[in-house]
Design a protein that fits this description.
Layout: H1 3-13, H2 16-24, H3 26-42, H4 46-53, H5 57-64, H6 74-84
Helix pairs in contact: 4-5, 4-6
């Protein structure tokens, strides 16, 4: 990154609202960085990946971009990953509570399970 670009980034990130938006997108950008690295490591072009998954090069380009108007399905990401020799892992990670409230343990009964 050039020094002038670095300075611009630092000035922008000094603004709390810009920093918050930037941080909110960190996971998404990290994911798309992984997508691009996976294709680079596979040695395949976008056109070659497209042929393997039955789509167009422009569709692969959209998938690889972090464009806010495009949100690929998990099925599409799985096809893309498989074409590169990868697999997709999707998981939920619990957020830390920000409100300062403490969770209290309750003695609620577990839901009853019905037999088929």
């Amino acid at each position: 990154m050039s020094s002038s670009l670095r300075k611009l980034k630092n000035r922008a990130l000094a603004r709390p609202e810009v920093k918050r938006a930037y941080d909110d997108l960190a996971e998404e950008f990290s994911f798309f960085d992984q997508v691009l690295k996976a294709r680079a490591e596979s040695g395949l072009t976008q056109a070659e990946v497209a042929a393997r998954i039955g789509t167009t090069q422009s569709a692969v380009a959209r998938l690889e971009s972090a464009a806010p108007m495009h949100s690929p399905s998990i099925a599409t990401l799985q096809k893309y990953a498989k074409a590169l020799g990868y697999r997709v892992q999707v998981r939920l990670v619990k957020e830390r509570r920000l409100s300062g409230r403490r969770q209290t343990k309750t003695t609620a009964k577990a839901p009853a399970h019905r037999s088929p």
